[in-house]
Specification:
Blueprint (H helix, E strand, L loop, with lengths): L8 E5 L6 H12 L2 E4 L1 H13 L7 H10 L3 E3 L10 E4 L2 E2 L7 H10 L3 H15 L4 E5 L2 H5 L5 E6 L2 H14 L6 H17 L12 E4 L5 H13 L1
Parallel strand pairs: 1-6, 1-7, 2-6, 7-8
Antiparallel strand pairs: 3-4, 4-5
Bound molecules: 2'-deoxycytidine-5'-monophosphate.
Length: 228
């Protein structure tokens, strides 16, 4: 029997800086679906823990934080390139989530089983409503294994570091390619070797290597897969 409806739950996984957010946003926009970037939740917990000066090695304290924190994700209120507003305790922390301190510590926080359980449950509840493009590392494998379509967007560490480097330069910020490459490789290592929900493609995922494709080509390819 041919499916004549679009997939309702789209899982989009892949390593850091593989272009998942750009692709996910465009896809959600084209289909009229909710775009949900789960990395924001791990970043938000890390940001709050740093703000409160919690010991990031204290797994139970960080887990309690993940179980109780109120993270508000709202439609974008400012046209400054953000996909959404992230609000914590009435403060707009959308760009704080992206700072170097969060970047350096988020892999540690996201490796804790209790943190993953608390956040995955919320993600699953939202995802099961359907009409969603959910982006992360473990959406197809753990959060929504029943997703209608699973995409694993990959690219070499060198290509991903180059894209991030070019982005920073374009924004007029300082950037050191070698340092970015080192961090990308380190994040990959932590994300893919952690005991709980390591980064890997689901057995039934479509793997896309975007090294030789630009963002437009990736989008066209995936949109076709979703509307076949
Ligand atoms: O996609 P990102 O760079 O914003 O993700 C930030 C961190 O969160 C990254 O180190 C991996 C982790 N993460 C995760 O473990 N599981 C997810 N579903 C999403 C992100």
């Amino acid at each position: 029997m041919t499916k004549n409806i679009h997939p309702s739950i789209i899982a989009l996984d892949g390593p850091a800086a593989s272009g998942k957010s750009t692709l996910g946003l465009r896809l959600a926009d084209a289909l009229g679906y909710l775009f949900f970037d789960t990395g924001i939740m791990y970043r938000a917990i890390t940001w709050i823990a740093l703000q409160r000066d919690l010991d990031l090695r204290d797994e139970s304290a960080i887990t309690i934080l993940a179980q109780t924190a109120q993270i508000d994700i709202r439609p974008p209120s400012v046209g400054d390139g953000r996909a959404c507003d992230v609000v914590i305790a009435d403060k707009d922390v959308t760009w704080d989530m992206r700072d170097g301190n969060v970047e350096a510590n988020v892999s540690v926080v996201s490796a804790y089983a209790g943190v993953r359980r608390a956040l995955s449950e919320q993600q699953r509840r939202i995802g099961l409503r359907g009409k969603v493009v959910m982006v992360g590392r473990d959406i197809g494998t753990v959060v929504l294994p029943e997703a209608d379509i699973k995409i694993y967007l990959d690219a070499s560490a060198e290509e991903r570091a180059k894209r991030r480097h070019d982005e920073l330069i374009a924004r007029g910020e300082e950037s050191d390619y070698r340092e970015i490459l080192r961090k990308v490789i380190e994040r990959d290592r932590i994300d893919s070797t952690r005991a709980v929900a390591p980064l890997r493609p689901a057995d039934d995922a479509v793997i896309i290597d975007s090294d030789k494709m630009n963002a437009e080509q990736v989008f066209e390819h995936v949109l076709k897969l979703c509307t076949m």
